[in-house]
Amino acid sequence: MRLSTVILPVRRWHEGGRDEWSRAEELGFHAAYTYDHLSWRTFRDGPWFGAIPTLTAAAVATTRLRLGTLVTSPNFRHPVTLAKELISLDDISDGRVTLGIGAGGTGFDAVVLGQEPWSPRERADRFAEFVTLLDRLLTQDAVTAEGTYYSAVEARDIPGCAQRPRLPFAVAATGPRGLRLAAALGQGWVTTGDPKLFESGTAEESLAAVRGQIGRLGQACAEIGRDAAGLEKILLSGFTPGRPLDSFDAFVDFAGRHFELGITEIVVHAPIPDSDFAMDPALFERIATEGLAQLSR
Questions:
Q1: Are 195 and 151 in contact (CB under 8 A)?
Q2: pTM of the model
Q3: Measured distance CA(118)–CA(111) in Å, rounded
Q4: What is the pLDDT of residue 297?
Q5: pLDDT number for residue 226
Q6: For residues 140 and 72, is the Cβ–Cβ distance under 8 A?
Q7: Stretch (H or E) spanning 19
Q8: 3-state secondary structure (DSSP) of residue 170
Q9: How far is 124 from 137, CA to CA, in rounded Å?
Q10: pLDDT of res. 107
Q11: Is the C-alpha dihedral spanning 74, 157, 69, 42 positive or negative?
């Protein structure tokens, strides 16, 4: 059982940003992640900083906390340049980085570079090609590859990751192709539950949906002879029905039910006043310091 947090990059580093990452380590979180977007939803017209520079600064400000993205996508990134940045970040953090990676959505990031929105099929095709090439780039000194969407010509990534054979991938996926990709190349799998249930579903329906996702992940692993038990199963909370962060007891119940399903890590958002992630800071800290201990009683 692991408890982690996600810190949205909305504060200047010297005006509270650094303190959030340091405090996450002090509170004992397993990991602290950030979103890898250029802007996001209701935060679009306010401050929003880059994920990789933020994580690099966080690596220097902490010593034990794992760091990562939830999640990076192909929307505005290329495997060759991303691999170089990840190797550098993994080195600076002394091997504390996890790459959360997904196919990306249809929001601002999908069109910010002037491209037309990708169809669901093209998005899935790009995702598979992106992750496969990124895996090669992070595990081989030199890579040449010609793909439909992403290519590399004698791309050099020496000395490679501090973590061997590379830093872990946590693949966000719920569809068949994405789950097969998680089974083949992931060290972890990420879900937010079933987005169709967020507005009008029930907690029981959401649990059933997550149970089904875990079952399909297990089938994808079995097809390639892999034991799904070795794959971390990460739930990014905040997108399921109900309000599990309204009280300590509500969180303990929420976490306990998901751990019973097979989720191994739950991620909660650090509080942001006057936003969808507003919550009592004292409750957040109690969840961080006492939540898992309560489950083990």
A1: no
A2: 0.96
A3: 9
A4: 66
A5: 97
A6: no
A7: helix 17-26
A8: strand
A9: 20
A10: 86
A11: negative
Residues of the chain with pLDDT under 70: 297
Mind giving me the DSSP string for 198-257? TTT--HHHHHHHHHHHHHHHHHHHHHTT--GGGSEEEEE-SSSSS-TTSSHHHHHHHHHH
Distance of CA 128 to the CA centre of its chain: 17
Distance CA 40, CA 107 (A): 8
Give me the pLDDT at residue 173, please: 97
CA 7/CA 69 separation, integer angstroms = 10
pLDDT on residue 275: 94
DSSP β-ladder status, 265-269 and 2-6: parallel
CA distance linking residue 186 with residue 180, whole number of Å: 9
Report residue 94 as tokens.
């002394």
Contacts of 161 by beta carbon, 8 Å cutoff, 6+ apart:
86, 87, 90, 91, 95, 138, 167
pLDDT of residue 35: 98
Determine the Cα–Cα distance for residues 124 and 122; give it in Å rounded to an integer: 5
- Token pair, residue 74, equals 């192909």
* H-run or E-run covering 31: strand 31-34
Of residues 9, 16, 18, the one with CA closest to residue 36: 9
